[in-house]
Amino acid sequence: MASRSIEIVQLHGQPKGLTNVETIPLEDTPPNGGYAWVCTFCVFMIIIHTWGINSAWGVILDHFITDSTFPKATRIDYAFIGGLSISQALLIGPLVHKAQGVVGTRALLLLGTLLLSASMLGAAYAYEIWHLFLSQGICFGFGMGLLYIPSMSVLPHWFSSHRSLAMGIAASGAGIGGIIYNLATSYIIQHLGWRTAYKILAGCSLGANLMSSLLLKARKSQNTQQTYALDPRDLKRPEVLFVIFWGMTTEFGYIALFYSLPNYATSIGLTANQGSVAGAMLNVGMTVARPLVGYVSDRFGRITVPTILTAFCSVVCLAIWIPANSYAVLLVFAFLSGMVCGTFWATITPVLAEVVGLGRMSRTFAITCLALVVPTTVAEPVALSLVKGSGYLHTQIFVGCMFLLGSWGLWTLRCWKCFDIERKASYEGGFGAGRSSTFLGFLNWMGLQKLFLTGRV
Transmembrane stretches, by residue range (predicted)? Predict the structure, then answer.
C-alpha cells in the first residue's frame, strides 16, 4: 500500500478567512514478507561478518596475553583495542545517520565493506601495538559502523507484525558468527599463526559483506517517513533517556563478559582451546535465543520481554558465573548468559519504534549509539583492572550489577509506556492529553501502580 497523508486545518488563533494547513504523513503498510526476508538475510549476513568477526577478538586477545606477542603491550592496551572496535562504530553513528539521507544506504555499506576488510588485512601486518590500535581498533570500528547502523535502520521499515522476529533472526547472526569465528580463529592461530588468521578474516568479510551490500535495499517510503536531522531536544525526553540508560549499563556488562570469558577460562586452569569453546558456547546461546526473543517480544510486549531478560542475565552472572570453577559449569553459564546478555542489540530498534515511532527511530538510534561510546570503550579495561586486585570476583559482581541496573531502567521505561497509552486513550476520549514527555509530568507516570501493571507493552 502506498504511503498517504492527511491535512490538518488549524482555525484557532487565525484571522477570519485564513487557515494554516499542515500535511502530516501517515505510515504506509509494510509488506511483512517477500523481499523483506531477503533483506533480513542480508542484515543477518552483515551481522555475522561484523559482530561475529569482532567476537573473535576475545580469542586473539587471550593468545596475545598468554604468548606475549607484543612485549611492550599491557593487558589494558589490548582491552582498549577491543573497546575501540565497538565504540568507534557507535561514535560515527550520527554522521552515518546524516550521510544515509545524502548518499544513500548502499554507498555507506560498500564503504564499510572496504574499511572492515582493510582493517583485518592491516592487522595481519602489525608489528607494534599502535598498529593494532589503528587497524583492529579504529579502522575496524569505522567499517563496522558503516555496515551495522544503516542496515539496522533499514530492516524495521519492511515489517510491522513480524518486526521483532525479523530483528531477532538478523541479530542471531552475531551468535552464529561468534561460533564460527571463535572456533575457526582458535584453530587457525594454533596451526597457521595469528597473521594468517587475520588474512582469512579479511577475505571472508569482503565476500559476504559485498554480496549483502548489493542485495540490501531501503524501502522507497523510508526516505519520506524518516527524519535524518538529529535533534538534541530528544535528550530532554525521559523515555529516550531511559533507553540510553538501559544501553549504557548493559554495555558495561555485555562487553566485559563478551571479551573476558576466554581469558577467565584460562585463569581457572583451563586450556586456550577450552576458553575458545566457552566463547563459542556463549554465541550458541545468542543464536538459539535471539529469534525466540523476537517472536516472544511480538507476542508479549517489546518492552516487557527485554526487561525480564535483562534482569535474568544479572541473576545468571551472580548465581552461576561466580562459582563457575569447572569446565562443565562454565559451559552452562556461557550458554545461559549468551541467551540474554545481548538482549539490548537484539531488541533496541523494535523498542525505539515503540517509544518514538518509525519516523524518529533512526535518529534516536544514532543518538543512543553516540551515548554508548564511553561504556564500550572502557568496559573491558575496567573489567581487567578489577581482575588485577582480586581475580575475577569483582569483575563478576560488576557485570551482574550492570545488568541489574539496566533492567531497572527498562522497567521504568515500561511505566512511561503504560502511562503514554493511558494518556492517548484519555485524549481520544476527550479528557485531555496530559504531559508524558517531560520531567514535569514525572509524578503522573512514575507511581508504584505503574510498576506492576500487566498487559502487552
Answer: 35-58, 78-96, 108-127, 133-153, 165-184, 196-216, 240-261, 267-288, 300-322, 328-353, 365-387, 393-413
Task: Give how many domains the chain has, as a whole number.
Answer: 1
Rounded Cα–Cα distance for residues 177 and 52 (Å): 4
Residue found by looking up cell 498517504 in the block = 4
Q: Is residue 437 part of a domain?
A: no
Q: Write down the residue that cell numbers 502511562 correspond to.
A: 419
Give backbone dihedrals phi and psi of 409, rounded to 5 degrees, phi first.
-60, -40
pTM for the full predicted model: 0.74
pLDDT digits over 200-237, tens only? 999 999 999 999 999 998 876 555 445 555 667 777 78
Q: Which residues contact 295 (CB under 8 A, 6 or more apart)?
A: 164, 165, 168
Its domain, for residue 54, covers 35-418
In the chain, what's the furthest Cα-to-Cα distance?
84
* Whole-number Å distance between alpha carbons of 457 and 455: 6
CA–CA separation, 428 and 439 (whole Å) = 23
Q: What angle do CA 145, 150, 155 make, to 5 degrees?
A: 135
CATH assignment at residue 258:
1.20.1250.20
Strands 20-26 and 4-10: antiparallel
- 429 within domain boundaries: no
